[in-house]
Amino acid sequence: MMFDSHVATLLDVSAALVNTLTDGTARGRPYTAPRDGDLPTAVTAALPGEARVEPAAAAHLARTADQLRAVFEAVEDHRIDAAADRLNTLLRTTGARPQLDRVPGEPWQVHFHGADDTLAVGWSAGCATALALALGSDLAGRLGVCQAPRCDRVYVDTSRNAARRFCSTACQSRVKAATFRARHTPGH
Q1: Number of other residues whose CB lies within 10 A of the CB of residue 182
Q2: What pTM does this model have?
Q3: Which pLDDT score, from 0 to 100, does residue 3 have?
Q4: Most buried one in 4, 85, 92, 148, CB count within 10 A?
Q5: How many of the other CB atoms lie within 10 Å of CB of 17?
């Protein structure tokens, strides 16, 4: 396994927050992130478990998602120094720190907390730390931005051969269908 289960969860949450909380394009269409009253529900859906997300925490995580998007985009563009600078800033502002936690019936696990352990700062610190662990290893190439036209959603590649290029099977299918049509169009 490339990442331990906690880091894998944090990387998945990082991608979910970016894809849910940042404007752009998704699967060939413009995407507008939830705002105002819809924001807490969207953040709750992006996080594992059943945490109740207050509006202020949701707004904080939306700002974090903007910063995380910049990290994914910098990695995709091979601007690793820019990604590291962005992550270092996020790690400092959240006060990210490792801590051993234990869930009953499970072994001790390293979790990452923020300086004040609120839901928003805790998730921000954890996501930043997980991305930093990927970036600081040979796994930075596992962070990506969808290669389908008119889609800028992000993903974490957990495939064995590190060959993932799309955020979803829907985008992969769109590209395959377009390629097929282009090859089978008279005159091409």
Answers
A1: 9
A2: 0.90
A3: 74
A4: 148
A5: 25
